[in-house]
Structure formats: C-alpha cells, structure tokens
Amino acid sequence: MPTGRTSSKLLFIVLPFIFFFAFAPPAFSQEVPPQDVVFLVDSSESMTAYLPAIVGILHRFAGGASEGDSFTCYQFSKNPVMISTGTVRQPSDIKNLQAQLLQLRGTGSGTNFSPALEKGLTEIRKSYRRAHRNDRLLVLITDGRGPENPSTEKITLTSLKTKFSDLEVGLNYHFVCFYMGDIVEADLQSFLNSVGARVVHWPKDKRWLQQATLADVRVVEEEKNIGGVPEIPAHTIFTLSFFPRRPPDRLEMIEMDIEDIVGGKTVDRLFDIRPYRIMCQSKPWSETFHLESRGFARGDYGGRFFFYPSDPQLLMVNPFSIPFRFSVSESLKVFLSQPIHFGPVELEGIYKETRDLYILPMWQEFPDKLEAVRVEADIALPEGLRLNVLPVHQPREIVVYLTLSREEDAPPLTEGEYEGKIRFSSPTGWTFDRRELPIMVSVREKPLNLKLIAFYVAGGAGALILAAVAVLSLSGVRQSAYDYLTKKADPAGKLILLKDPTRGLATDINISRAAKKSKIKSVVIGTGEGIDVEISHISLVDKRYILTGTRSDDVVQTFLQASPPGTQVIINEMALSGRVPLNHLDRVKIGAFEFRYEQPMPLRQVVLHYLSGEVKQGWLLDWDITAEGFSFLLRERAAQPIKSYARFHELKAVTFVRDFDGDVSRNLLSLKPPRTGHLAQIVFADDEELTGYVFEWKQPADKFYIFPKSKGENILFLLVERHTLKGFRLLKENRSGARRAKKHFTQLMKTLTEKFGTKENVT
C-alpha cells in the first residue's frame, strides 16, 4: 500500500461472516508432518469387560498409521506399563504394533491417574524435543477412579501441570480424554480443563465399542492469513486444507465456528455467526470459504476458527482451533458496462474486437502510477487467437482495453466456447471490490443467411396464409380454431383473504377445490341459491362473481366476471367491466371483501426448510444453484408479498410443490417430474429420512435434486444441501433410468430458467 496517505474511519457497523461456499473441493497440495501418538488405557478391574473391544479400537487406529508415524500405548491401574511402542517405517511395523496390543488385559483394582499421565506427558515431551515439527496426540481412555481417594497418589494432578509447563495443548500437542461414564472426577476434570484437553464421553456398551472406529482429521494450516480485504462491502474467497490421517468409515461432518477479535476487543455483539458444516472426505482436500465483510475501517484484524466434530465419540479433529488474520486497506472499484463476451468469431478470416473496463477510486485516493495495478488474462484460446490486455493510466481512472484479434494467415480455429478470468492484483497493496471477472470467447462457423431463407419461406407460405384467412372468415371455423388454441378449463388458484368486514366469518377461497364440485367449469361466489362459494354479507346481496378458466399450453388462465351486467370488478384499485383475466398476486375486491389472487405456479412455488427449523413459503424470482442464493417473494398474509433472499448454506432443503396446502387438482397434474433413477435413502442431521431417486450416488454434488418415491403427487422434487446430511445409502442402482430422468428434468427446468433469463446447472 502506498505510504503517506491519510487514514479514514468508517462509521458502519461491522458485520463479517463466513459460510460454506458451494464449490467442489479444490486440489490439496500441502505436506503434513508425521504423527506421534500416545494412548493411556485404564486397565483396572472395572474396565476388564471392555478391554477386548478397546483392543479392537486401538488395533484399527494403529492400522491407519503412515510412514514416519510413531505409536505408543500404556495400560495402567495403580502403575503404568508400556505394552506397545514403535515407529512405522514399513508395513510389517504396523503388524508388530498391532500384535503387541494383544497384551492389553485387566491388571487388578485401583486407578491412579498421575503416574500414567506423567508417563504420557514424558513421551510427548521426548517427541517434541526429538522432532518438534511432528504432530503429537495424547489419548486417555478411562471409566474413572471409583471409590479410591485421590490423596493416595504420590503425585497430584496439579503438580503435573507445573512439571510439564513447557508443553501447551494446541501448540505442542493435542489431548483427548474418552471417559466411559457420566461424571468425571473433580480433580481429573479440573486438570483436563486447565491444560485445554477435550473430554468426550463413551458409553459403557461392549457392542458399541466393538463397532467403533476412531477417525482422525488434521487441519493443515496452523494459522490462516486471509490477506487484504477491501474497505468497502465485498466478498473474499479463501481456503482451508484438511488431511484425513484416518478417514471416517461413514458420513461425518466438521462444524466450524468463529471468535472474532477486532482492535483487541471481541465484537460478538456486533454480528451473528453460525457454525458451518464441512463434509469429511476420504482423501486430503481443501475447502473453499466465502468471507463477506463490510463496515471495517482500515487496519489489521484477527480472530480464531474453531472446529468441532459432528460425532466427537468417533471423530477427532486437530488442532481444535487456529488463528486467522486479515487487513483492510484502500479499495479500488472495477466498473464494467457489459459482460466481457467476444464473438462469435468465425473459423477463418480476419477478426478484431475490443472491450474496455475501468478501475476507479472508491473513496479519495488513487494510484499515481500504473505499476501499482496489475491486470492479467487467464484463458486458454485456440491457436490463432490472441488476447491483448492494455491498461492506460488517466487522471482518477485506469482504462483497461481488452483486444481479441486473429490474423488472416492464421490456421483455422477450433469451434467452441472458451471461458476464463480477468484477474486484478496490486504489488503495492491496493485491493479491489472484485478480484476477477469472467470472460468468454465464442468460436463458430459462419451462420446461414437467414434473410435469404426467410424470403423463400415467405413466398411459399403466402398462398397458404391467404387460403387460411378465407376459411377462417366463417364464424363456425373461427370458433373451432379458438377452442383448439384455448380450451375451456376449470378455474384455478386461490383467493387469500386480506380484508374481512365480518371479522372472522369469511375464509380463503380455494378456487380449484370449489371447481371440482361444479359440473359446468365455473365457480360462482355470492349469497343465496345457485352459489358454489357462499359469503354472507350485505355487500354481496343480488350480486354474483363468476370465475371461469381457459387452458393454453398447459397453463390455466382464470377470469372473473361480475353479475348482473354493469357490475364492475375492482382489480388492483381499478374498476373493470366484463370478463377480466386474473394475474398472479392481483388484489381483488368482491363486495366489501378484499382478496389476493394466487395463480398455480408449480415450478416456482417452493417451501424453504432452514437449518434453524424455520419454514417459509414463497415464489422464486431467480434460480441458479451455482450462485450464493436466490431471491423469492415471501408468502405472507399481506397485500403484497415481500421480496426476500435466501442463502443456500442456511437451508436444509428446498421443496418444489404443486400447491402450498397440498390440494392437488387436475389442472396441476399435467406437470410430470421424473420418477426414476438411482433409488437412495438420505438421512438429515435431525434424523429425518427421505427415500427417492437421484441422478448420481457415487459422488453427490454439494447440492443435488432428489425425487421422492412416496410423498404423494404434491411434492415435485427437492434440492438438498449435502452438508445437512449425516447418511446417504444407495438402495438400487439404475443407470439408464438416471440418464433418462436427467434428460427429462433438464428440459423441465429449462421452462423455469427461461423465465428468469438464467442458466440452471441441473447437476
């Protein structure tokens, strides 16, 4: 960052938060040091019945050791005895360690913690002095002391902390106590708390212990430097790497929480942060996170990330926490008038086209030299195409010219869509509101002369058009054509009551349900005889409101007409006469009553299930599962629904429904979602189970669609957040069915996304 600049303070509220970003885990490329593990196993009389199962746990844990790892195990009652130790240099070393563990057996009454912990901490200290870069893990397994008096131990637990004060949990080693019981002895609990050990309770259940396998995942970074963050509201991406030394044998999650420190003071009161779930992988992986910041003044900031296993009885995560830091500095704004899209470029011939973008000051200051800003293109183009990036420094702005060119003598291009990034950086410390922008180059063959084709088609079709006009001039034929294009249908939708002069006697009107009872494809609202929906009120005496419908392209259009003739219909505060079409969310007055009309929109009606347990209903305004979230109209009892925004990471699932109240009419059954594919059962973290069809089961995406098998006709499908699951089981594989279903669903979603003008990623 340039020096000698005046500092400024922002008066905004600080509101940073971090959430899981819906990207596939990037490649892992960091090295992890060897691990030195020391187990202390209580072998007193009360533990004897469980020791065979514990031998199995240790046997499996030792089997996961890698080259360079060391493994040591002590059993203890009154005094500790080493039963297994060694360093893994070849596969036979692991077998030797596992064979040594068979010596573990009961050693009589009495339990003294101090001698055993002294041995364990001595081994940890030796490891630290021998190879300080190694990871170290101390594990204590016990069911407690029992009736023994702690004063019988020659060394107190308090003195142990003083003796090994040069060792610090989280810095030199990690410490976990698996306690088989409910209440930990006061002196042991005090010692474990004072040194920073984690205490996890195991059940006294031999069957559970026999099936238990300890997993061990390491957080690779010991400290995370997020780097520079713009002074303005911005989004910053960063990654954390994880190394599964012993991968879980089932679906396991890691929950991440955050403790922020700003200017030396905690700022918990200034923002709301939730733990975020990370799915454990079987191989080393990196997780991408998204930092949203706003309201920070310039300066340096820091805090700590905390990691909690979803099932601490079977999963250990080390380290428990790591510090993070970032800095806030002067920001520059990247301005782009339109997306960077070149083409279509023909396969042969000369081509040259230029796009420009601007780098502008966000506040007062601006780089005085072009060298302070670096703009680079990252895109793989076919041979013969060249992209030139030319930044030009001007007063208070930098104009970046992007020129794509092709020389006449260049070889023919390869047809395709080429995508890449324009990246922004600064060697002197400036930050940008956007670090990168997408760029696309389209290379295609020369298009057909559509004007010429249209001329010949128009000439040939002219005679047919004249003949059709003559035939359709007959009234009977005109009516037949109209009936063919727009068929009479039951009216559909709902009238949601907004204003009720009877104060509770009137209710919402389900038009579709009322139409089922009518035999003439209409619904009559009013008071007296011949009424389908009766509303008793003086404002409807001698008046009738008739709802009818027509179908066109599988869409039902509902109309409202008042009777007797001359009676007007008031829609959105406008008085209208005749047969008036109703549009979605129109405000309709019927007498002294006011309603909101809701049109059936099966592919846009969603029920949002939040991780907090909250459930919301609404209509989609956009939909792209590769985005951070989506906009929707929140369905509430108000004249106009409120536009809202939902982030995917806050959701458990999104359910697409035909009808919010589950009342499925014939009009809504024309939409046919797939009901085939791989049959699978998923289990959410709250133990809710769902069986349905999926496109992929071996490597489910971070978000995937599932089509319920037995939830009735109302639920079309669900979008599920993978990180909210704790179980995924394949019941029946069906590759051909999955391919057909995916093709069908792609076409189905195309009708939805075309309305939004966005591209949906079905997979």
From TrEMBL:
SMART domains with a match to the protein in the record: VWA (SM00327)
VWFA domain location: 36-169
Pfam family, one: VWA
Keyword presence, Membrane: yes
UniProt entry keywords in alphabetical sequence: Membrane, Transmembrane, Transmembrane helix
Superkingdom in the source lineage: Bacteria
Residues spanning the membrane: 453-477
Statement: the UniProt record of this protein carries the keyword Ribonucleoprotein: no
Protein's name in the database: VWA domain-containing protein
